[in-house]
Amino acid sequence: MFMRIVLPIVALLGIALAIRSVLPYDVGLESGRPVLKSKAPPPAKPVLPPPERPSRFAESVHGMGLVEAQRENIPIGTPVPGVVMEVHVDGRPGYDPPHKWVGDRVKKGEPLFRIDGRELEAELTSREAALASAEAQLHRLENMPRLEDLPPAQAALEEAEARLLDAEAAFTRSAQLYQRSMLAASEYDRDRYTRAAAKAAVDRAKADLEKLQAGAWKEDVAVQRAAVLQARSLVDNARILLDRLIVRAPVDGVVLQVNVRPGQIATQAWNQPMVVIGEVDRLHVRVDIDENDLPRFREGVPASATLKGRTEPEFPLTFVRIEPYVIPKRSLTGDNAERVDTRVLQVLYALPDVPPTKVYVGQQMDVFLDLGEAPDRP
Fold it and tell me: What are the backbone angles phi and psi of residue 156, rounded to the nearest 5°?
């Protein structure tokens, strides 16, 4: 009998407690009457502890910093679209010699990846053949006349002179007979015209020989030289286009990221850099100073940084330069209370040569700028 009464009461109390725990309000008393009061939510614990200002800074400006290479991160794209045939920094096994990989150092001019250039290679072969033909034609003109061409021309002149002598002898006989009225006028005219034709033939043979001995006309040589220059420029253009298909490192640095693979179609409007290179011997921190803090900011003030979400170790920073152009904020921390409709001034600081712990490019840091007196600038 006791259990039949107690168990239902315990069950009803449990249900009431469960309902009360999920309702967004509590039951209270005001003026002796029960009323519903809103239940205050428990305070949320931050995912990361808020950044703490260094104790030696009496007053400071806080800014979010982004680690980058000393010469800034250089995104590498392609100057021409095409299919990627080979990537020299992908580090896949089986290459001879083995290729490099992310984190390896490359030198200026070292190939990173290559675009398909078979069509340009065929075009280069055609243009080189045209250049060879133009150069051979120029060589022929510059070396005229050929020694083998002179004897035939000289023989043709001698033959014409012999025919002229024969024609003059025939004309002399005809003239004597015609004066004695022993020869018809038609035969006399025939021998006279034959002599004139033979004389013209001698003049033509002599002119041909002199022209041959003089060599090529200088204007023809100039035209052919221009044709050679044009053909050579077309060959150089094809070689330049072929060389552009091999994307090379613009500076000495370390390969930070590779986003290209063989067989991929590379375009100039790629949404991300194909290769990222940077000089990481000494890293910089790009600090965003909110425009609301600019009246308090002074150039060259000392600064200190910590890794995001940590208070130790502390990195002493060295001022490098200011980029004096206020831009919209782009580096977001992910904080729910963070404003994104603001503008920032970017200031560059250098990390120490030997940092207290390993830092990677792209890592976020909390940076505090001391508002004390700025150091004297050299």
Answer: -65, -40
